[in-house]
């Protein structure tokens, strides 16, 4: 039987503890893919349920490195507080890492040519996410 994480996560009605197996599955689901831009990754977290997944800071730290950006991962591990959604935690770390999109390196920006409607829509969504952050 999997051990329980020590700190509870509020899930609306009562306390909810994630097992280490569940945290591993969460980590795998939300880990940045190779060659995936940070903005593409955070949009994927948004699309795949990051706003609905509640974690406390201890559970967030147990997810390990979710991105290829060491500074961002460091900020994630130093965040403290009660129960928040995964997306809220990640946006908090994002704002510590980059004060605005003007602080991005050119290689981190989603500006790229597109040839299909799907690629164009994805680009607009990524730019919208940058503006929202």
Summary keywords:
6 helices; two-stranded antiparallel ribbon; globular; mainly alpha; about 130 residues; disordered N terminus; two-stranded antiparallel sheet
Separation of the first and last Cα atoms:
40 Å
What is the mean pLDDT?
Answer: 82
Give helix % range: 40-55%
Q: Which structural category fits the helices and strands?
A: mainly alpha
Q: Number of helical segments?
A: 6
The outline comes out as globular
Instruction: Please indicate the count of domains.
Output: 1
**Record field, number of beta strands:** 4
What would you report as the Rg, rounded to the nearest angstrom? 16 Å
Strand content: 5-15%
Largest sheet, strands/sense/barrel: 2 strands, antiparallel
Strand adjacency order, main sheet: 1-2
Compressed to H and E, one letter per element, the order equals EEHHEHHEHH
């Amino acid at each position: 039987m999997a051990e329980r994480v020590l700190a509870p996560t509020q899930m609306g009605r009562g306390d909810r503890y994630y097992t280490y197996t569940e945290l591993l599955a969460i980590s795998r689901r939300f880990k940045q893919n190779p060659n995936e831009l940070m903005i593409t990754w955070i949009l994927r977290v948004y699309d795949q349920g990051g706003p609905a997944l509640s974690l406390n800071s201890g559970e967030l730290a147990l997810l390990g490195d979710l991105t290829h950006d060491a500074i961002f991962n460091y900020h994630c591990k130093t965040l403290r507080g009660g129960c928040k959604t995964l997306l809220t935690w990640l946006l908090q770390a994002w704002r510590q890492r980059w004060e605005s999109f003007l602080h991005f390196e050119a290689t981190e920006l989603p500006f790229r040519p597109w040839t299909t409607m799907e690629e164009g829509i994805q680009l607009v969504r990524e730019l919208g996410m940058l503006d929202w952050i």
